Amino acid sequence: MTDASLSPAAAPRAGLIATDARTRKRNAAEKRFRAYGICAIGVGLLFLVFLFTSILRSGLPAFTQTVIDIEFTVTQEQFDTAEGKMLKTKEYEKLFIAALEGQLQERGLEVAFDGKAIQRLVGKPGGTIRSYLQANPDRLGAPISFELAAASRVDGYLNGRITRDSLVDSRFLQASDLDLIDALQQADIIKGAFNWNFITGTDSGVDNPGGAGLGASVIGSFFMMLVVLFLSLPIGVAASIYLEEFAPKNRWTDLIEVNISNLAAVPSIVFGILGLAVFIQFAGLPQSAPLVGGLVLTLMTLPTIIISTRASLAAVPPSIRDAALGVGASKMQSVFHHVLPLAMPGILTGTIIGLAQALGETAPLLLIGMVGFVAREYPEGFLSGFTDANSAMPAQIYTWASRADPGFYEKAWGGIIILLLFLITMNAIAVVLRRRFERRW
Amino acid sequence: MNDMRILERDVDTKEVKIAARDVQVYYGTNHAIKDVSVDIEDKTVTAFIGPSGCGKSTFLRCINRMNDTIDVCRVTGDIRIDNQDIYDPRVDPVQLRAKVGMVFQKPNPFPKSIYDNVAYGPRIHGLARNKADLDDIVEKSLRRGAIWDEVKDRLNAPGTGLSGGQQQRLCIARAVATEPEVLLMDEPCSALDPIATAQIEELIDELRQSYSVVIVTHSMQQAARVSQKTAFFHLGNLVEYGETGTIFTNPVDPRTESYITGRIG
Fold first, then answer.
1. What interface predicted TM-score (ipTM) does this complex get?
2. Is residue A228 part of a domain?
């Protein structure tokens, strides 16, 4: 037997320059596969761009508030006259209207309007003006600049949500008002200003979208996340360390493992109704409290943390455990001195992803009463932050989205922008922590 | 073979350090070690040779009870160190491992500084009273590991940044830092080049003055170079055990002869 007889009796191979049919087919398949990959990524990016543009387009108006900014002088004489009348605020409203008319005439803009129109645009400005003058009597006789929040329909008209065609005359806004708004805009009296109240304020009534703010529910979310962090991180990490490093591998631990994986797939609303039954009805904890919300979200976050922690513990090479045991470290010392620090980046990433997931969870909160309209005021102190009735960001957004007034529609989108900002920040922290703790071996 | 005989003359003690009698090891239903009885002497390098899967590493890991960490592993029989049964239920394996150091096949320094790698054992066993003590132990151990001169200026550099041979000597330094009486080495040179191997072998010969060294090796030349006693394992049995010179030049068992001449294994 010669060596040549061992090779298959195939046709002689072509030179290296010419590719044969088989190679061409293989190369074509690879090219196709790459093209599929690029297409998939492209579609994903397209959706992402679409998502962000629609969120920003619909949500950014929530951060501006249309105001009527006007400067006029109230003399001591006018003040005394007004204070002598029965309907005092009505007098100030007259002064306000006179000032508006004057300034419009100065600019040569002729529009007819009455007190009713003003009420539709800015509510009742008289009270605001009066209380300012009473608080600052020294400003009498000098020009004072008033900035009054315009009604949400005015906002809607300026944002393009309401047009002349779509407008139906109502007690909220009439076609004739639009001429006035146009004129005031030309006179630079109506303009947009940054809406701090949206970030710091609390939820408003169903007919006042302009006054609605996300502040209280941000605080509610914050206290919930505190509860989730301080319960789920220690419990989750301790459970994973025990299961991964100490527990014997038998049918019981297999059963527990399968069930933890199952828990991760349980719909969140199930956890909500569980929380309602156990924490509120059985344990008697207060309704709508961030404490209860935090407990429910802890139950939801635990499987995520346990699964990711176990995965990162299992990824630590066994040679490190051998090395520690070999120099006479106990099992616990080898885990806490060597394995855990190496698994830390994975644990932190898993925890923050779990927290981010919990931050965006809505359904279980609705079941335990953390609905948006509860967030009417800030908690009084740190401890009452846990127990005072409050809402959370996603529940607040849900509540706004379900309200009839179209002004709340853009508030809901604006709330989503804030929620996304929090989520992006948390993910960025996860990336930074990962880099910081990562060690090579 | 000549220099080997010179080494043999250096064996100056015949005290038995480790005595194993009728040791059986099972991995589940697999009978991995069958009836192994062996006396390992103090201040001697004992080499375990044999084909892959013959049980030499398994037996080595019985001596410091590293097999305890494997759930399905069961050990019966009697292993005594200084006439104390190490499988006595009262024996704490952690204490045992401080007395029986181990060096692994793959260099496995902790992802910490060189200093912390060596200082870890003494720290957890409370061998140093203060920082100066610990510094002394670290320096002495690194000198014994024959790596002091190479790392003395960068003790705070990570141990994982060293070359393979340096890492393995660092692991030896780490193992001797806890003042063990027995040093187990599981193929310590299999991942190293010939130069690093020569350094480690030289080091093993020096360590022999203070410890009883047991080394598992795939290289028969290495066994011949560094050991005074050799044990040949085959299919879980201890086939032959005796003076290294005798095993390599005049083996009693035909299987040993087949293995060292390269016909099996």
1. 0.86
2. yes
